[in-house]
Amino acid sequence: AWFGDRQVFYRGPAYWLPGTRIAVRAALEGAPMGGGRYGDMDRAADVRVAKDRVELTVDNTTKMMSVFQGSRLLKTMPVSLGKPGTPSSSGTMVIMDKAEHMVFDTRNDPDPSNRYVAPVSYAQRLTWGGEFIHAAPWSEEDQGYRNVSHGCVNISWSNAEWLFAITHIGDPIVVRATEQRLEPGNGWTAWDVPWDQFLKRSALPHPDLIAAAASLRTAEEPIVKRGEK
Q1: Contact 96, 187 (CB under 8 A)
Q2: Is residue 150 annotated as part of the catalytic site, yes or no?
Q3: Which one is catalytic: 150, 152, 168, 206?
Q4: pLDDT digits over 162-210, tens only?
Q5: Which residue of the set 134, 150, 168, 206 is catalytic?
Q6: Is 152 a catalytic site residue?
């Protein structure tokens, strides 16, 4: 399914099962891209979904995060989300990247009140727009009660360290009941779209439609064996 004119996602109707092996090849070399441009090379990837996949849910109503492994609840922890001027996104995202230490630098933000440089630890990226889960010892008194962040999911240092150790890139996180919906394409947002709507973004026929068409064709046009009239 296409998200804009530069980003395409592939998925099934439900999350990949733990332990699933996914092999992908994009045959792009020589493929016409428009405007007289052509693909430079084929690309391939071979990955396996973690057997101990983790799923996260964050509820702005309760200001709590629940951490699941399979169907088992491992832990709940208080959070502080984006304040009203910079709300966190509600929707289904996935962990895109992880960095034990990094620096947030927003000095180019058009709003002067949102400009800052801050070192953070145990950062896990959720969107291209700069929403992360990360340790925020400065907001621990607010976690579970008030939203004070610039859109990130703030958790305590000890909880951030524990969570960082068990999550994987690709683990899903659902954030609920914030003032802002997740923008399509702002991160790996394929799972935020209901399956029927996801199919409408695709230029390819759905396997069920292919099967239905094949059944219809078989019923209408019986196969003629060699030698039969």
Answers
A1: yes
A2: no
A3: 152
A4: 999 999 999 999 999 999 999 999 999 999 999 889 988 888 877 676 6
A5: 134
A6: yes
Query: Residue 42 carries which side chain, given as an amino acid letter?
Result: D
Is this prediction's pTM over 0.85?
Answer: no
SS3 of the chain: CECCCCCECCCCCCCCCCCCEEEEEECCCCCEEECCEECCCCEEEEEECCCCCEEEEEECCCCEEEEEECCEEEEEEECECECCCCCCEEEEEECCEEEEEEEEECCCCCCHHHCCEEEEEEEEECCCCCCEEEECHHHCCCCCCCCCECCCEEECHHHHHHHHHHCCCCCEEEEECCCEECCCCCCCCHHHCCHHHHHHCCCCCCHHHHHHHHHHHHHHCCCCCCCCC
